[in-house]
């Protein structure tokens, strides 16, 4: 699905912006980049600012017109900082746009189109689009760098994809945050119960203290590492008790 989402940059003046846009794309799982008449490409500055997303640059297509870049797309969304008088559907919020993009990209290519750094897209280029989208910003200073605009729309698109059932996205977790197995948790509970008995903390045979502490640790959801630390603490205390006959 994400491979059907195409980022199109029209007449980019600064090659560094192409590299920064490629980096923004790759962080959100997008790899399909099309450049319409860039001033300079390939370029060392683009490669430098891609910061590891050089594969996106190497696979980028260069075409001579916006029409050639989007002719096979079922939806073409032009990013524009200002409303035009053209009667195109307009998305006020990028997340609304992203939901439609993901639906259409499930079956066919779609394109997000970004214009020149200083002047954006022309009216003729907007006419090549099926929709417009704006990024809500400070009305007194709503100026976004090209790569920042790409990053925002790419993020919203990736977010909409993550929310769909059946995607294969896996959220990152610290390695030491792995939850303990049921067996490990039972060993901990047994160890804690034994220590409470040896210490004299439990004096009533039918006290619910163990159950309450088990519930406490179940709510706390300690990781394997944390549970191991607790068991080490229990063993250190246990070492000071008289040996059981």
TrEMBL record:
Annotated ranges, domain tRNA/rRNA methyltransferase SpoU type: 5-155
Reactions catalysed according to its record: cytidine(32) in tRNA + S-adenosyl-L-methionine = 2'-O-methylcytidine(32) in tRNA + S-adenosyl-L-homocysteine + H(+); uridine(32) in tRNA + S-adenosyl-L-methionine = 2'-O-methyluridine(32) in tRNA + S-adenosyl-L-homocysteine + H(+)
GO biological process, one term: tRNA nucleoside ribose methylation
First-level EC class: transferase
Record-level GO cellular component terms: cytosol
Keyword terms, alphabetized: Cytoplasm, Methyltransferase, S-adenosyl-L-methionine, Transferase, tRNA processing
Family: Belongs to the class IV-like SAM-binding methyltransferase superfamily. RNA methyltransferase TrmH family.
Quaternary state and interactors: Homodimer.
Protein name: tRNA (cytidine/uridine-2'-O-)-methyltransferase TrmJ
Source species: Halomonas citrativorans
Gene that this sequence comes from: trmJ
